[in-house]
Amino acid sequence: MVSMISQPRLTAFRALTAVETGRTDLPSALAQTRGSLTDERDRALTAEIVTGTLRWRGQLDALVAHFGRRPVSRLDPEILTILRLSVYQILHLARVPAAAAT
């Protein structure tokens, strides 16, 4: 299943998880992503997903809560992170097709 996920999105997920769990701060997480991605476009996409998801977190959580079956507080943290970054891409990244964001 992991092979179906693009490297920038997987890297963004890992960076968001590290920031949200308090293991690192945003600048450090972004610096680590630069080392794991060789293509500058992949680095840019990862940085946009991470910073945008954190910036719009309140709005994203409200949408997940509105359309979800469970309250945000009852979702597994990894699932919530995946939902946030997917919804962010669908709403805010015009060049990313919805099918690619999920």
Description:
- With 102 residues, the chain is mostly helical.
- The chain has one domain (2-101): N-utilizing Substance Protein B Homolog, Chain A (Orthogonal Bundle).
- 71% of the residues lie in helices and 0% in strands.
- It is built from six helices and no strands.
- The chain has helices spanning 7-20, 26-36, 40-55, 57-67, 77-92, 98-101.
- The longest helix is centred in the middle third of the chain and has 16 residues, at 40-55.
- It is globular and about 40 Å long.
- The model has no long low-confidence stretch (mean pLDDT 91).
Secondary-structure map:
Elements: H1 7-20, H2 26-36, H3 40-55, H4 57-67, H5 77-92, H6 98-101
Helix pairs in contact: 1-2, 1-3, 1-5, 2-3, 3-5, 4-5
Helix content: over 70%
- Domain module tally: 1
SSE pattern: HHHHHH
Poorly predicted sequence stretches spanning 5 or more consecutive residues: none
- Label the structural class: mainly alpha
Approximate strand percentage: under 5%
Cα Rg:
13 Å
- Overall strand count: 0
- Cα end-to-end separation: 13 Å
